[in-house]
Amino acid sequence: MSGLKIGYARVSTDGQDLTAQRDALEALGVEPERIYVDHGLTGTHRDRPGLRQALAACRAGDTLVVTKLDRLARSLPDARAIVDELTARQISLSLGGSVYDPTDAVGRLLFNVLAMVAEFESDLIRLRTREGMKVAKAKARLRGKQPKLNRRQEAHLVSLVHSGEYSALEVAELFSVGAPPCTARSNGNASKREPASRRRHRSADTSSRCRLSVSDTPAGRRHLATPAWLSAPSGGAACGTAMDKASGGRRPCA
């Protein structure tokens, strides 16, 4: 075989490792910088960035090297299309060290059989996954994303916010939830037992607290950003920040 050797490796999930394929490609004579990979992509679709780069890197006389055919494609039409493209560009294909010869009838037969087996394995994996999900759903084990807090924890969270001793942001950090959910729970429960006027006042106060952002500095000090109601609107003075000189209090928004 003449020309350069271009390697290609692929794994279907993010949890899988490419080390074994990289080592096998290097053992087959592929330089590490000429190995192109696709991580977390299925082989049933040809449109893969790593495969596009590998094919673009190949020139006439080069060899595309893969450890197994199912790493290149898990679809018989895609496998044939890739081989036809390589043959037209005078590029060889090496499958685990065995160079595919498109002019050999037996070689074409074995290639088609391997491609069909790869596609069959993909269909089996998909079928087993669907069956497993169906069984889990029937046993009530597939319930989707569950809430972080149970009802007792939610009631405790709301009581802490309404006590006035802690801000909604502090309670959210204590329960490891976001400030917006904390506000939504407190407002939703407050609407059941508070009058409308008091509820609006508490909702505005809680929302202003939840809009504070906290960041930890390397020294461990906590800095609070300016609340949203202190920012000035365009073309006018800051709403709620102008001080009434007569009373010394805060002027309400118009």
CATH level-4 homologous superfamily of the largest domain = Resolvase, N-terminal catalytic domain
CATH architecture of the largest domain: 3-Layer(aba) Sandwich
Secondary structural class:
alpha/beta
Tell me what portion of residues adopts beta-strand conformation: 5-15%
Biggest sheet architecture: 5 strands, mixed
What's the CATH topology label of the largest domain?
Rossmann fold
How far apart are the termini? 82 Å
The value of Rg in angstroms is 31 Å
Helix content: 40-55%
* Domain module tally: 2
Order of helices and strands: EHEHEHHEEHHHHHEE
Per DSSP, the total helix count is 9
Task: Describe the overall structure.
- This protein folds into two domains: 5-138, Resolvase, N-terminal catalytic domain (Rossmann fold), CATH 3.40.50.1390; 151-222, no CATH class.
- It is α/β, with parallel strands linked by helices.
- Helix 6 packs across helix 8.
- The model is unreliable at 188-194 and 206-254 (pLDDT under 50).
- Helix 1 links the parallel strand 1 (5-11) and strand 2.
- A five-stranded mixed beta sheet has the order 2-1-3-4-5, sandwiched between helices. It has a two-stranded antiparallel ribbon with strand order 6-7.
- It has nine helices and seven strands.
Short description:
This protein has 254 residues and is of the alpha/beta class. It contains nine helices and seven strands. It folds into two domains: 134 residues, Rossmann fold; 72 residues, no CATH class.
Set down the secondary structure blueprint.
Layout: E1 5-11, H1 19-27, E2 35-39, H2 49-57, E3 63-66, H3 69-72, H4 76-88, E4 92-95, E5 98-100, H5 105-138, H6 151-163, H7 168-175, H8 179-190, H9 196-210, E6 214-216, E7 222-224
Parallel strand pairs: 1-2, 1-3, 3-4
Antiparallel strand pairs: 4-5, 6-7
Helix pairs in contact: 6-7, 6-8, 7-8, 8-9
